[in-house]
Amino acid sequence: MNRFLDLADFSREEVLDLLALAKRLQEKPEPQALSGRTLGLLFFNPSLRTLSSCQVGMTRLGGNSFVITPNHGSWQLETAQGAVMDGAAAEHVREAIPVLASYADALGIRAFADGHDLAADLAETRFSAMAAVCDKPLINLESAVNHPCQALADWKTMDDLQVAAGGKFVLSWVYHPRALPLAVPSATVHMAAMRGMNVTVLRPEGFALPTAIMDKARSAAAAAGGSVSETNDRDEALEGAQVVYAKEWGTTAPYGDTETDAKLRAQLRDWQIRPDWFERTANDCRLMHCLPVRRNVAVADEVLDGPRSVVRQEAFNRLAVQMAVFHRMLARQ
Amino acid sequence: MNRFLDLADFSREEVLDLLALAKRLQEKPEPQALSGRTLGLLFFNPSLRTLSSCQVGMTRLGGNSFVITPNHGSWQLETAQGAVMDGAAAEHVREAIPVLASYADALGIRAFADGHDLAADLAETRFSAMAAVCDKPLINLESAVNHPCQALADWKTMDDLQVAAGGKFVLSWVYHPRALPLAVPSATVHMAAMRGMNVTVLRPEGFALPTAIMDKARSAAAAAGGSVSETNDRDEALEGAQVVYAKEWGTTAPYGDTETDAKLRAQLRDWQIRPDWFERTANDCRLMHCLPVRRNVAVADEVLDGPRSVVRQEAFNRLAVQMAVFHRMLARQ
Amino acid sequence: MNRFLDLADFSREEVLDLLALAKRLQEKPEPQALSGRTLGLLFFNPSLRTLSSCQVGMTRLGGNSFVITPNHGSWQLETAQGAVMDGAAAEHVREAIPVLASYADALGIRAFADGHDLAADLAETRFSAMAAVCDKPLINLESAVNHPCQALADWKTMDDLQVAAGGKFVLSWVYHPRALPLAVPSATVHMAAMRGMNVTVLRPEGFALPTAIMDKARSAAAAAGGSVSETNDRDEALEGAQVVYAKEWGTTAPYGDTETDAKLRAQLRDWQIRPDWFERTANDCRLMHCLPVRRNVAVADEVLDGPRSVVRQEAFNRLAVQMAVFHRMLARQ
What we know:
The structure is a homotrimer of 333-residue chains. Chain A is an alpha/beta fold. Chain A folds into 2 domains: 3-147 and 318-330, Aspartate/ornithine carbamoyltransferase (Rossmann fold, 3-Layer(aba) Sandwich), CATH 3.40.50.1370; 162-309, Aspartate/ornithine carbamoyltransferase (Rossmann fold), CATH 3.40.50.1370. Helix content of chain A is 38%, strand content 15%. In chain A, the strands form 3 sheets. In chain A, strands 1-7-6-2-3 form a 5-stranded parallel β-sheet, with helices on both faces. Chains in contact: A-B, A-C, B-C. The A-B interface holds A 29, 31, 43, 46-49, 51-53, 55-56, 59-60, 64, 67, 69, 72, 177, 291-297, 301, 304-305, 311-312, 315-316, 319 and B 36, 38, 40, 64, 66, 68, 72-75, 78, 82-86, 89-92, 94-96, 98-100, 102-104.
């Protein structure tokens, strides 16, 4: 495996294979598998889980890592092709990426959406500019509209919990004081569809996921025998749900319009997941969230601290699935 | 050993045992003792010695570490129970700590005092909120009113220098442009008392250590055969001292009152340790300080660069004692 | 080798020897050579290549490293002797350096010029204050007027490309929105002279390199059989060049005068290396730059993306030459 950028680049069998490897590494550690191997980590945006689990994952397999964080110890990097660089950025990724790649055996990059131009973000313009000049294995640690490591960890979490493939999976918009990117909702709706779930996207008016994201999920669902629908009707959505996956994101009507976003958002503070959201769900319905989560804003304490919440398990699984990705990419055969 | 949060949690024998282990590891390295073990380091506040000595300590024992710094590459973390998180903090420690703990074999946390509510800081409210959700071994790398790694290194430094247990130990307030927390003075007065020193806290009016801190030190002194007193009389305090331990802290009259602090502090610039402070002390009286120290503000160059100063040795010993703590916590039996 | 601070501290033979070691380590890895060895890295200024290549270099040799960055996770450090530290800096290097050195087997330090006092910067006042209190092997990772790791990597790059020793080497000033330090131009003119090149420094009026820098390069040239000259005539300089080494720096007329610098600089936007700069050079003339480079400001895309550019190779070679330095310093004999 040379690239881990999007679950959609892999067949269902390949994903199941990665998940089996993650499980095997949990049960039977391989402390020498990546001996002498180095993962370069480039974080354009803050991180807690991803940063620490990538570093630990490499050391548990006998390898190591280094971290570059533009604006925190390193300078800003330009990604735009042809830019006249007389602004804040001191270096272009056309130099930085090949250089970092030359020091490492693989690179992992986190680069969030610009959040202004939907077409550019859907095309992963920033991330692709980096991928194009990276001649080493590359891992997407969250891009404009994807977060495959999170998606894989969430898939594993549902497997661990024996959530049935045909069950109802509700991706629900929840309140946050600011507009967040589409990476996790986009990755999540696709992952759930690819796993064969019957997916409902529950979101207020103005927060529909872009058509391209929904279409991609729908074709994954078609292949896996599931379905994808969307609604703003909370009762309808939650009826019989086996999983409620809470996530915050910004308005798409239009995308990146901060004024509209603020106006809509101000009316939506009741989109906080509280115990009564589970009145119509399956009895054993789970609450998932990729973290970080704002307590008593996006999800109430009672839910996060209650038995439905599996948010910590999802985070624990980040380590296992990333170790599987590193192993598949870098282990000597 | 599952927790290293406060020297007071250990018997004198247990402390002596840790110090013996520190010495043994200095003399006889064990480069494989913690092979495959990972220490997660969470720094809410800046660090130089603690950060580097923890990382080096782990690698010298064959293990490794990772570092998360809220506000520098990661986001702010909330510690208050029940908080409605619509402010700056993006994640609660109730998620972050179990997640980081799951990636690591032990966690080390630095989280300074809030500095507003004395009762809360004395109760270690912030640190305790994290300790309560950490199911792995945990090390206090400086909390509101404690710094046990520093205390243990200082104890070792006095042992290395053969400072007699019954000697006079003066903890002296010194000037600093800003109010600093009570962690080091609190840990120091207790450590010196527990080591059996006759401790005098020398401080200007308005800077008395809280009663709870003094009482804790007094009961340690009672058990160890030493004593604890306080005074604002410099001549009396320094008379016959074997150790002068310089430290900066904020006013406690009342605690956290920045206006009072600034007013009092402005008159106290002569609380700078200069050579003439040693006119009445024992001939071989030592100058200790936990570092960082502001030269020619808290302590004069002549003292820091002279033969009395053992501030570097104290810092060197941080590595040895922390290696002992890591070893005791994580070495396979 | 106990210090790697300036190529001028070494004989030509010693440099060639280091380059041979760099090549050997590229061809025949020694993954255990520095087992158990730790490099402490202290970065007063941002870094991408230096930080990552130092960390990777140590791990590839079986060692490890730690990083301290004042202002990003650690506090500001004072370097001035006798300073009354009531300002921003919380700690003096007279404490910090011996402490970090005690935890490490060697230190690497990056500390740029203050940029105000030419004599002080030429004397490496800040770096020397740290070197004076460091009792472990020490590496200059860029100081006021030097960058020996970059110089060594550039030398290796010319060797790899079989650039003839007697060829014409043009160090050309190029435009940048801000005044940058003299470290790289100073190191480069000396390195090229020491390698036996016929060096021309091409720079606009007001940007002549200081006499001390030119004199140092001239004596290296005299010993190696090359030459050093300077001009503001672009055509004359570029005629027959085998290497154009582009670099940005601030005015020296007078040094550190930001107003003069801004006024001069505003007229010099055409000092951007474009394809037509190579009309009079040798056919196979190379473009070198230490990176980071501002595209379409200092050097045009067409040049950086064309076959003349060897800027990435220079950066790749940072790893190899630094591994040679670490190995020479720290490998057990």
